[in-house]
Design brief:
Distance between the termini: 29 Å
Helix content: 25-40%
Structural class: alpha/beta
Oligomer: single chain
Radius of gyration: 17 Å
Low-confidence stretches: 1-5, 7-19
Number of strands: 13
Order of helices and strands: EEEEEHEHEHEHEHEHHEEEH
CATH class: Alpha Beta
CATH superfamily: Class I glutamine amidotransferase (GATase) domain
Number of domains: 1
């Protein structure tokens, strides 16, 4: 099995270490994409947010859990360089450096050495090998994860088994992949047409959160004059999700059954705490 499983104790990457009896195997799913298609043929350079990935990753590794990293196609994911800002790490420069150093040790973004595997390989290994899944944000999940058929199969399996499923910021848009025809659903949103509730969504009625419309409106200037095809809050609500949020940029985490969602970058650490609590049960 050509899968790299990484483990750390006290923040040190050990790689292929023996799994402790009480350790869980957490699947971390990221996007393959580095560009988000906007309206009017524009695009926006993006990727994953550093803190949204690395704060939970460090907490999981420090707790002794093993991590498997995957993207739909098995490509090395892209770091959104705009997320390399200490404000996302509690304005703590040292904390940001520590998390970025761990990212460098993991080599996730290295085209030659990344341990990332494809979701097809994850499926071949068997979903039973994994105890939980975590999906960070950045805008990239809105380009591919929301329509990923293999991710949809994984989420439906985790839902049926009530395995912890944690997502943050724009990451919860990936839940739409569990629809039977997610691309058809999002096409209605892109066209600005009235979208009825999507049929047979496994998360219909679930309490959840995602980067809010208010936050999207406040941060739309970062798109350099472009506009997103639709906002994730609208997409999840119209699909049947029961949305709630805190004030913009404040920590907000919603847990409902197996699902744990965080509103924004400030919520990543709290999402990790909720996931760690679930893994202790």
């Amino acid at each position: 099995m050509n899968t790299t499983i990484l483990k750390a104790a006290a923040g040190t990457v050990l790689g292929l270490a023996a799994v402790a009896a009480n350790a869980a195997n957490v699947l971390v799913v990221l996007s393959d994409e580095s560009q988000l298609a906007l309206r009017d043929q524009r695009s926006f350079s993006t990727g994953f947010y550093a803190n949204e990935l690395m704060q939970p990753v460090k907490k999981l590794l420090d707790a002794g859990h093993t991590l498997t990293f995957a993207t739909p196609l098995g490509k090395a994911p892209t770091l959104d360089r705009s997320s390399l800002d200490k404000m996302y790490f509690g304005n703590d420069e040292a904390s940001m450096r520590q998390h970025v150093e761990l990212l460098d040790k993991l080599q996730l973004t290295s085209a030659e050495h990344s341990p990332v595997v494809s979701l097809a390989r994850v499926e071949q290994n068997g979903y039973g090998h994994y105890d939980a899944v975590y999906i960070p944000g950045g805008h990239a999940p809105m380009q591919d994860l929301l329509h990923s058929a293999p991710l949809g199969r994984l989420l439906r399996d985790f839902h049926a088994s009530a395995k912890p499923t944690a997502l943050v910021c724009h990451g919860p848009i990936a839940l739409l992949s569990a629809l039977e025809q997610p691309a058809r659903y999002t096409a209605t949103l892109e066209q600005g047409a009235h979208a009825a509730k999507a049929p047979a969504w496994i998360y219909a009625g679930y309490k959840m959160t995602v980067f809010s419309n208010a936050e999207e409106d406040a941060s739309k200037g970062m798109l350099n004059g472009g506009a997103m095809k639709f906002w994730p809050q609208d997409a999840l609500q119209k699909a049947g999700g029961s949305f709630s949020s805190a004030a913009s940029w404040q920590t907000w985490v919603v847990a409902d059954r197996e699902l744990i969602t965080g509103q924004n970058p400030a919520s990543a650490s709290a999402v990790a705490d909720q996931l760690l609590a679930r893994l202790k049960r």
